[in-house]
Amino acid sequence: MTNSSARAASRLALTTALATAFFATGTTASHAATSIDCSTGAVAVTTSNTTVQLTGACSTVVVDAGNTTVRLDSASRVTIKGGNNKVVARKVGSATIGGGNNALRVSSRLSVATVTGSNATVKAASASRVTVKGSNNDVRSTRLTKVVIRGANNTVKVKKGSTKVSNRGANNTIKVKKRR
Q1: 3-state SS class at 31
Q2: Which of 7, 27, 120, 163 could pair with 176 as two cysteines, CB 3.0-4.6 Å apart?
């Protein structure tokens, strides 16, 4: 199966599952929980006011919706757009968080994240590099190797380890252990 046909199949599966949940329960999509296998290719979640459970090892996950929660085990790449979305994962390769009021929570390993939106929350057990270009964002990690801040009014807190910090923004709060 080609990448484009796998993406089309994933989108069709998501749309079909949401429609089935709507008609089966007699409720709106905001009350439906949907499970999608994302091991076949990239997945785009574009339905607002819903909860989606992605199963399998995901390649690319794009959330371009509003008020949507996406739960998954692992993904190579996650992109969050729109507003008031939440992605909960165990492991993520790279992430881009745009839009407003979006959240990414990674319970194990986040390799690289770029926050371009505002009022975002990023929480990870560990991360290699986080770049914050937006404003009013909150980044928290138990361990973070490097953080680059170019926006304003952001908060970064790291509990353990050594963190290299580059701060070119204004009014940022950074709390990390001192490098030795």
Answers
A1: helix
A2: 163
